[in-house]
Structure prediction request, 183 residues.
Amino acid sequence: MLNDLFIFKKIKDGDIKTFEYVFRQYYSSLYIYSFSIVGKKEAAEEIVQELFYTLWKERENVQILRSLKSYLYGAVRNQSLQYCEHQNVQSRYRESVLNRKDDIEESSPLDELEYKELQDLINETLKKLPARRLRIFQMHRMEGRKYKEIAEILSVSVKTVEAEMTKTYQVLRHEVEKYTHAL
Prediction:
């Protein structure tokens, strides 16, 4: 524990050599642990790489209450479980969209009209967004890019991408709620 505190103190002070040592020491075992949870090589790699990226970037704010090893494994477990939950949500959404398509094929002309109106409302709302916010939304939702990738392409922080996506969803939610209340 004392050794971990000393190592982490050096990392907090910006010692890149110590950080590289920790990276080399734990990367493989963390990758295997993440892979055992998520079952996908690319996802496990991304989770572990993101953990180390965040650890370095946020090193001054990170609090390690137990050992460094416990912190790293706990963070990988949490991120891996979040990834799995996100995959489940995406799968359920995909399934509901497919079911919706089946429903639309059997829907009434009124249902189709309402669906088209809602699509038009969403498209018009998106057109009113600031250019950068619209671009971030398109890159994420239409191109399937991850927040980190978008941040790198646009030379902004991941937090900026998250904030812009949150604002976009708030605007869309507000407009859709107004539409549904008007029905």
The helical segments are 2-12, 16-38, 41-57, 68-105, 109-127, 131-142, 147-154, 158-182. The longest helix spans residues 68-105. Residues 15 and 144 are 36 Å apart (CA to CA).
